[in-house]
């Protein structure tokens, strides 16, 4: 199996300046005076700085008008300057071990009436900021950041495409790992090694769900031994050096899983294709969910599809938009998300097919290109 995916990702730092300005305009329109963003995907999206989440406060202060500031522990200053932050002209406020960084944030944001806190901020920091700014209303920053993160730019689409090709390369070799007598855990360990070998920097999850374990959508691995006739759901993903994630599911079987299973899987394959065919700008998230769900429901399998059809993906494996009933958000060109219907029969088996797709001006572009059909592995 040939390993090695080109993950070189040159990125013009000006893209971060563009994102900062766009978020500032969105915050002003929402009546938010400043955004406070701590380490996590929002900070990386806005600045390119992959700061380590620590008890020491690192915080981007992004006013709706004016220049951004960055509060950084003194021992992290060089790391921050080595990131794209060093080219963005942000004013750095370094603080020492005996300083109070929260008071620095309060001072820089004096006069603000409403601040937006990033959705991943630790509760301890939220409460300290509230105590330091008792008259300032706190709201979530996601309401202005996430609509921008949902619409991927050309760089992000290229990054997700590389991630999709990399995880496809892993799936191309999964069948050779699935053999009667091996445990799920042993197979999962081999898959994890290959996820790194094809260019990911981290393994985010490995699901090897064989036989009755396939009925648990978020089963990971166990010491169950694979048997002839097992269907095996393999859902895998990782993070690439540029921070963008992969996620793809294919279903395999060790020999013939039986007529009923094969018939149900044919319906599932049609459901996944139907949801993908429904994707285009202006169609709602819930309509994409319903398109495939209706296929399963009409075949009597509706009650066995127990989760949403999909989730957004980018710097996080799960982010907006969510492809689920009740989400009337209209799709736009550049939105990236999974399409992953399944069926789950408790105590018996399960199945899922998952691709990452991009909504385009013309419809849909799938970033995963492995065959969707049930991969039947010959066993001696």
UniProtKB/TrEMBL annotation:
Stored SUPFAM superfamilies: Creatinase/aminopeptidase (SSF55920), Creatinase/prolidase N-terminal domain (SSF53092)
State what protein this is by name. Unannotated protein
Q: Where is the Creatinase N-terminal domain?
A: 19-150
Residues forming the Peptidase M24 domain are 159-361
